[in-house]
């Protein structure tokens, strides 16, 4: 193989996709070895421990649902998540690496070229731990992760390529995926993409839509036979499969019939589009609330928004599109495939980051266009530290970088010791908006500790805290002890749950031994 390719990957909750910039300068989806343009984000472990990824895993799920991993994206960055199979624990980054390795291997087989570098998309509302976990998954899969790109930014890149450089518009990206939701407002002015605000929920998505259908089908069977199919693992998996079929089919059909079977009992359940809309009303209303909140954050009005872009398969649902039209007064643009646009935009970003390596593969015209692209992304969450109030009565989340600050950014704040001859200072770095550092809405990013402080009066010794937030949305923190303006020592934050290079390499070697 020669001429290593860079690619963009949309690592989705239910489906994933991979794309690259072809020799004509177009972003193109790479089909998997089954010939499909998206790959189910599902893993099935054979009884010998071999992981099977994608469509085959989905087909095997009914044989033993306890050996299936799905909806993994919701567990990214969750330190307590373990998938235990045959006495072995797998962590979110290990399992996600299997999905990435499958996409990588299939793409290499299709294109006949090696893939070493990648841009991976994440929901705009992902926090630091979730982004870090995604990056580590890429490294375990043997990929150099050039950038973690926000999904709405990727979708906008896919939309913006090839459009007039002179066009100026406000664009809303409604990203309703399998397990996550976010809505983003941005300004596109020629080749300049400026993110204004984003908000969302990493535990709201198509899975919640499916769950509404699952509960409806289960209740129909209970009413007829008095049996709850959700209590049987195979029947429960069948309910989820039927729910996904219903969600997809009712996006282009007015009604359908589903057959539920348990032992020698069978039931036909008819479901139409109107009933489907009623089942998922609460989920859709939540996304509507987020739309209004993001508009409020930008101080725009709906009449100011020129274009609505859809990303994520759940955005196809008719009741969702009806709601968007009712709220905004506009039809969503239909120029992009919601299942593919994020991967295509990530591929464009990968090309931008490696344009010097890629110039010979595509036209000079495209290269010149990409060189002029400017992407101004933002911090989706505030960053701060746990600090005492002035009267020393309580701790607060002292925000240093407010949310919606343009990235990259570096901010510094100074804090003084609170006691005479204080021996040490421990700085807890926080992410979130709530004033209370103990709120469940606040995430601990990591700690910085400086010990063996010299003798001093309370308030005399100053600690300089510098927070750096890069274009990947990844955070670095440096604490510097100062006395009379002289830097005494510098300590870099140790992140919570971050894997060492040695552990990543060890897990990469284990993954290389597996047949995917």
TrEMBL record:
CDD domains listed in its UniProt record: ASKHA_NBD_HSP70_DnaK_HscA_HscC (cd24029)
Keyword terms: ATP-binding, Chaperone, Nucleotide-binding, Phosphoprotein, Stress response
Annotated GO MF terms: ATP binding; ATP-dependent protein folding chaperone
Gene3D superfamilies documented for this protein: 3.30.420.40, Actin, Chain A, domain 4, Substrate Binding Domain Of DNAk, Chain A, domain 1
Family statement drawn from the similarity comment of this UniProt entry: Belongs to the heat shock protein 70 family.
Function noted in UniProt: Acts as a chaperone.
PANTHER family xrefs: HEAT SHOCK PROTEIN 70KDA
Listed name of the protein: Chaperone protein DnaK
């Amino acid at each position: 193989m020669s001429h290593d390719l860079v690619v963009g990957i949309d690592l989705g909750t239910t489906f994933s996709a991979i794309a690259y910039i072809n020799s004509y300068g177009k972003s193109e989806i790479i089909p998997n070895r089954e010939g499909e343009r998206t790959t189910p984000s599902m893993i099935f472990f054979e009884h010998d421990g071999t992981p099977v990824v994608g469509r085959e895993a989905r087909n095997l799920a009914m044989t033993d649902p306890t050996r299936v991993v799905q909806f993994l994206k919701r567990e990214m960055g969750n330190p307590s998540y373990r998938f235990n199979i045959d006495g072995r624990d797998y962590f979110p980054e290990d399992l996600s690496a299997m999905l990435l390795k499958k996409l990588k291997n299939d793409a290499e087989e299709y294109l006949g070229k090696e893939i070493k570098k990648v841009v991976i998309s994440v929901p705009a509302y992902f926090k630091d731990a979730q982004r870090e976990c995604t990056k580590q998954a890429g490294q375990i899969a043997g990929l150099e992760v050039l950038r973690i790109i926000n999904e709405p930014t990727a979708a906008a890149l896919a939309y913006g390529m090839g459009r007039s450089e002179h066009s100026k518009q406000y664009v809303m990206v409604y990203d309703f995926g399998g397990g996550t939701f976010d809505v983003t407002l941005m300004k596109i002015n020629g080749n300049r993409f400026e993110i204004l605000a984003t908000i969302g929920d990493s535990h709201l998505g198509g899975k919640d839509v499916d769950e509404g259908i699952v509960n409806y089908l289960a209740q129909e069977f209970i009413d007829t036979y008095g049996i709850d199919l959700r209590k049987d693992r195979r029947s429960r998996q069948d309910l989820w499969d039927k729910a996904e079929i219903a969600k997809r089919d009712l996006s282009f059909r007015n009604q359908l019939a589903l057959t539920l079977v348990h032992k020698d009992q069978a039931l036909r359940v008819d479901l139409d589009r109107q009933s489907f809309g009623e089942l998922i009303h609460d989920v859709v209303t939540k996304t509507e609330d987020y739309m209004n909140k993001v508009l409020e954050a930008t101080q725009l009005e709906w009449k100011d928004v020129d274009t609505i872009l859809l990303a994520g398969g759940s955005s196809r649902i008719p009741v969702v599109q009806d709601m968007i039209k009712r709220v905004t007064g506009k039809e969503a643009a239909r120029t992009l495939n919601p299942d593919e646009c994020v991967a295509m935009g990530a591929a464009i970003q990968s090309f931008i980051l490696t344009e010097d390596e890629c110039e010979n593969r595509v036209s000079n015209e495209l290269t010149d266009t990409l060189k002029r692209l400017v992407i101004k992304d933002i911090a989706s969450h505030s960053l701060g530290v746990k600090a005492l109030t002035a009267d020393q009565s309580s701790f607060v989340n002292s925000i240093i970088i407010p949310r919606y600050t343009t990235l990259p950014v570096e901010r510094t704040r100074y804090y003084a010791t609170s006691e005479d001859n204080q021996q040490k200072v421990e700085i807890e770095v926080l992410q979130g908006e709530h004033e209370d550092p103990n709120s469940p809405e606040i995430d601990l990013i990591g700690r910085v500790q400086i010990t063996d402080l010299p003798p001093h009066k309370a308030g005399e010794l100053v600690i300089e805290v510098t927070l750096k937030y890069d274009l990947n949305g990844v955070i670095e923190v440096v604490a510097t002890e100062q006395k009379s303006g002289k830097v005494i020592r510098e300590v870099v934050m140790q992140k919570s749950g971050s894997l060492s290079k040695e552990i990543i390499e060890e897990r990469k070697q284990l993954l290389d031994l597996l047949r995917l």
